[in-house]
Amino acid sequence: MWAGIKGKTEKALLCLLFRAAYMFRPGVIQPLHGIQSKTLGYRILYLLAKPLFPLLKLFFPNYLTTTEHLGRAMMRVAMDGFPKPILENRDIIRA
Predict the structure, then answer these.
(1) What CA–CA distance (Å, rounded) separates 35 from 32?
(2) pTM
(3) pLDDT digit string (tens) for 15-30?
(4) 8-state DSSP, 13
(5) H or E, element range at 10
(6) Where are the domains of the chain?
(7) Which residue of 33, 51, 52, 69 is 20 to 30 Å from 60, comparing CA positions?
(8) Is 34 left (phi over 0), alpha (psi -120 to 50) or beta?
(9) Residue 68, CB-side half-sphere exposure with 13 Å CA sphere
(10) Cα–Cα distance between 87 and 49 in angstroms, integer?
């Protein structure tokens, strides 16, 4: 259900009269630098998945990013723009 709502929200934002709008669609986000979810379930999930992140990055490099990489990509896109309005995870990695 959240994906449908996110899609409708993205479409509505793109229809507004902003000079530019960019939608980020990250895949798996590895939290760094002590960042933790406020949701207990996610904190437990990330704790259990932490040892798997190097393997995920090795086998699925286009589907995993980090909080640091995502933040830097958002700042770059805000300052310099991007060729397309919707950035999938592999675009986020490139940005």
Answers:
(1) 6
(2) 0.81
(3) 998 889 999 999 888 8
(4) H
(5) helix 2-15
(6) 19-94
(7) 33
(8) left
(9) 3
(10) 25
**Contact in structure between 95 and 77 (CB atoms under 8 Å):** yes
SS3 72: helix
Largest CA distance in the chain: 44
Reduced to 3 states (helix: H, G, I; strand: E, B; else coil), residue 50 is helix
The kind and range of the H/E element at 33 are none
Spacing of C-alpha 65 from chain mean position = 7
* CA end-to-end span of the chain: 28
What are 35-83's pLDDT values in tens digits?
888 999 989 998 898 898 899 889 998 899 999 999 999 999 999 999 9
Residue 40 three-state SS = helix
